[in-house]
Design goal:
This protein is an alpha/beta fold and 884 residues long. The strands form five sheets. The protein has a seven-stranded mixed beta sheet with strand order 13-23-24-25-21-26-27, with helices on both faces. Strands 3-4-2-1-5-6 form a six-stranded mixed beta sheet, sandwiched between helices.
């Protein structure tokens, strides 16, 4: 057995080997040690190899999916090794023969199909990358995005500079490519940055001719011209994806939709940094909750949730397509009864695409058949409802046409064949409805009610012999037999029943017989359960065959259900939150009236607080405008910046937006640099990361782009940062000419509003009340007078002594700046003085004033005991005495 294990493991060195032994998957040697640590299961030992104990651990077959999901989440690949031979056949080869085992499947993050291993609301994308030379020094990359759990398959080409952005848009679970691409030193940093595991494939197996051959074989065609024109890089990527699927599925072929080509520039370009900063589908901590996707998702089906995430990852840049989506949302928003009925039907539609994929791969079960039945049934009802509506927009008409293509006979057959309560696996049986197949019903009766059948035969034989004591019995030696008193038995041997009864055994006072009929009944009873299971399996195969014969049409129905769910979700959200239809055109306009942050507003609604809406106009004459935003920390600058970027994303997704009115000139690229962190693994400081991201914006932003920049230059010395921010503003204004929001604490930059024609200033209003600052979160034209840093520091909980000291230093610096226009020398600044400095002429008195005021503010008379009140009074008196 261990020899067999070692041989199989040698062929799968890059995987953990799940080796089937009885009711467990066992792991040995290093695999066992890795799995034991990853899964938290006990590591034991069994036998010896090379004189050393063999480490071993195992997981029950019935719970294997749970353990597989944990291993996959940690980035491991697993080879599942199962018995492929009947043990009886192995015994024929000799008493010491081992049952033959083979790897039946490789489980990797990008090729899983089981519901228990998948996130129902997230696509499970395998991304393959190909490459072709576009010149002596440049390359073009092809991307094949494939989800075998649903069959979606798309191809695209991007220049080298946009590869990272394209990968981020697809959010792949796994990436595959040739060894040459993987070894390219110019891409090494990219492979370190992506969160998905990266797998190189042998270069020799990825020749262009083999890639085209695999595509033709997958779709059973002799030419690819019917699918469109694909570049060499795209074909190379598609070939790599199909090769990897062949390897991992061990010959099983998934049902894939014909590849669709995504043209360059068909979606809004958003780089990985901007996606992270804006928290489109995941928060900075990696969670879905708190993201824009979480805030807008009103879908009622898993396929709809996945399509919504896909739309959000790639907003459109086709104005006509965007307007068609808006028209569909508007129609459903204005037709509440129709929308409610549609959502009710959609909610009962299971995940058709994933059920279809499992059936195609031979991993489907009875519940997948039921999912097809219920999903197609819901599609029929939706098609009928759409037929009753008048004035359907173009997108809804197209979806309704696809829904109407459901095969009603197939749905009826599935209804008739499947029982109400279904097992998870076909091997468990019992999933065929009673009355569907007479032979299955008979086998079930024999298997489940054999006593009744035997009793009926016994009663008939008793009547024919006239012997009331005739009994049909069973033992392990004779099986079923007829037992009668000896006198009756002798009469049977001489009478008319001698041809019916066959003598088996004579006892002292009884005789035992059998009959042809009883023998046949015994055979039928003994094999009834197996026969019933075989017949049910045949019914399963027949139904699955009918479904797979219509796989393409069913896939279109699944896509139509998802599309309708997304449109209804946007409409539901628009009505719920009072969101409005934006106007999207080819201009350079950017007008938002009463704009709100969709995520922050949702959070405030839960707490019962209102959100302060703000306007934003970045429109220019043939170009964009830059709005320079100043204001205090916590005043709402970052929220204002982000909300306008998110409004642009939602508008081009095809959704309504959180504003009273929006006119948006199409945005081709969206850039955001809001906050940054160290990247110590690559030796980059916070400031270096900031500069790299800013450089990407300045080098790539076009007039149609939207840029939001927050606090550029804050990570270095004040004058260095100010000069960099100043130069960036000028470059955006003069060179890029894009629409931009630029938040800063460098108030000196506001002077640029007088010399840059397309730049204006805005600030966040604040109010002061009894020494406290109140943030009004209202954006108004103008310039902030101060940053209120000390007030924010106090709110954050800095010690009172630190606040007092900071206030003294601030006043000293401000006075020095007034008295001496030139910059103070470093020796003049009290930044490095002791916390208890020697008396200084003016600042000390001011510090005492501040200390006395703070000490007084800290006293809460209503909560003090008499003793505490007396102590507080003495403290205040001591401070005042020091002042005197």
């Amino acid at each position: 057995m261990m020899a067999q294990y070692i041989e199989i493991k040698a062929a799968n060195t890059d995987c953990l080997l799940f080796y089937r032994m009885g009711d467990f998957y066992e792991l040995f040697f290093e695999d066992a040690e890795i799995a034991s640590r990853a899964l938290g299961i006990v590591l034991t030992k069994r036998g010896k190899h090379g004189g050393a104990d063999i480490p071993m651990c195992g997981v029950p077959v019935e719970r294997a999916d749970d353990y597989l999901s944990r291993l996959i989440a940690l980035g491991h690949r697993v080879a599942v090794c199962a018995q492929t031979e009947d043990p009886a056949e192995a015994k024929k080869r000799g008493p010491k023969s081992v049952v033959r085992r083979e790897v039946v499947r490789l489980v990797t993050p990008g090729t899983i199909t089981e519901d228990r291993l998948l996130d129902p609301a997230r696509a499970n994308v395998l991304l393959a990358i190909g490459r072709r030379k576009a010149g002596e020094t440049s390359s073009v990359y092809g991307l094949a995005a494939l989800d075998i759990s649903t069959g979606r398959f798309s191809l695209s080409e991007v220049p080298a500079g946009e590869l990272a952005s394209a990968i981020a848009r697809h959010e792949p679970r796994e990436i595959v490519m040739s060894e040459a691409i993987h070894a390219d030193p110019t891409l090494a940093r990219l492979w370190r940055e992506v969160s998905a595991p990266v797998t190189p494939l042998p270069q020799a197996e990825l020749e262009p001719s083999s890639a085209e051959r695999r595509l033709k074989a997958q779709f059973g065609v002799s030419t690819l011209e019917g699918f469109g024109q694909f570049g060499r890089a795209e074909l190379a990527a598609a070939g790599a994806a199909l090769l990897y699927i062949e390897r991992t599925q061990i010959g099983a072929r998934p049902t894939l939709s014909p590849p669709t080509r995504e043209s360059t520039g068909s979606t809004l370009a958003i780089d990985a940094s901007t996606r992270a900063n804006l928290e489109l589908t995941r928060t900075l901590s990696g969670e879905r909750k708190g993201s824009l996707l979480d805030a807008i998702d009103r879908t009622v089906s898993a396929s709809g949730a996945r399509l919504l995430a896909e739309h959000l990852a790639g907003p459109l840049t086709d104005v006509d397509a965007i307007r068609r989506r808006h028209a569909a949302v508007e129609f459903l928003a204005e037709n509440a009864p129709a929308r409610a009925a549609m959502r009710e039907n959609l909610a009962r539609a299971p995940d058709l695409a994933r059920a279809l994929s499992r059936l195609a791969l031979g991993r489907g079960g009875p519940r997948d058949l039921a999912a097809l039945r219920d999903g197609l049934d819901a599609a029929q009802d939706l098609a009928a409802r759409c037929a009753e509506l008048t004035g359907l927009p173009e997108d809804l008409t197209r979806l309704a046409t696809r829904l109407a293509a459901v095969d009603a006979d197939l749905v009826a057959e599935l209804r008739a064949a499947l029982a109400d309560d279904l097992p998870l696996k076909r091997q468990d049986g019992g999933f065929v409805r009673a009355g569907y197949d007479a032979e299955i019903d008979e086998c079930r009766v024999l298997g489940q009610d054999s006593r009744k059948v035997v009793a009926a035969l016994q009663a008939r034989y008793a009547e024919e012999t006239g012997c009331r004591t005739l009994r049909i019995k069973h033992n392990n030696m004779l099986g079923y037999y007829i037992e009668v008193p000896q006198g009756v038995g002798e009469a049977c041997l001489k009478g008319v029943l001698r041809e019916t009864f066959i003598h088996r055994q004579t006892m002292v006072d009884a005789m035992r017989f059998t009959s042809v009929e009883l023998g046949q009944l015994e055979s039928r009873i003994s094999g009834a359960s197996d026969r019933a299971l075989a017949l049910e399996s045949a019914v399963f195969d027949a139904l699955a065959g009918r479904i797979l014969a219509q796989a393409a049409a069913i896939a279109e129905v699944a896509e139509a259900l998802a599309g309708l769910d997304v449109a209804a979700s946007h409409a539901e959200l628009a009505v719920e939150r009072d969101w409005r239809r934006p106007v999207v055109d080819e201009s350079y306009a950017f007008v938002v009236e009463g704009g709100r942050h969709p995520v922050v507003e949702a959070a405030l609604r839960h707490s019962g607080e209102p959100f302060i809406a703000n306007d934003c106009d970045l429109s220019g004459d043939g170009r964009g405008r830059i709005r320079l935003v100043t204001g205090p920390n916590m005043g709402g600058k970052s929220t204002f910046l982000r909300q306008n970027a998110l409004i642009a994303v939602l508008a081009q997704v095809g959704a309504f937006v959180p504003a009273t009115r929006v006119r948006l000139g199409l945005v081709d690229r969206l850039f955001s640099r809001v906050g940054a962190a160290d990247d110590l693994a690559r030796g980059q400081s916070t400031f270096m990361v900031e500069m790299v991201e800013t450089a990407a914006i300045l080098n790539q932003a076009s007039r149609r782009s939207l840029v939001i920049l927050d606090e550029i230059g804050r990570g270095t010395a004040t004058f260095d940062g100010l000069s960099i921010a100043w130069a960036c503003l000028e470059h955006l204004h003069e060179q890029n000419g894009c629409r931009a929001l630029f938040a800063t604490h460098f108030h000196e930059l506001t002077a640029l509003g007088q010399r840059l024609s397309h730049l204006d200033n805005a600030t966040l209003r604040v109010a002061e009340h009894k020494g406290e600052v109140v943030f009004l979160h209202e954006v108004v034209p103008g310039v902030a007078e101060r940053s209120y840093g000390l007030q924010v520091a106090r709110l954050a909980g800095l010690p009172a002594g630190v606040i007092v000291r900071a206030g003294a230093i601030l006043k000293h610096l401000e006075k020095a700046e007034r008295d001496r226009p030139s910059k103070p020398r470093i020796d003049d600044l009290p930044l490095f003085a002791n916390l208890s400095p020697p008396p200084m002429p003016e600042p000390v008195a001011e510090a005492i004033d501040d200390e006395l005021r703070l000490a007084l503010d800290a006293v809460d008379p209503d909560s003090l005991t008499p003793r505490e009140a007396l102590e507080a009074l003495y403290r205040l008196k001591a401070v005042n005495a020091d002042r005197a």
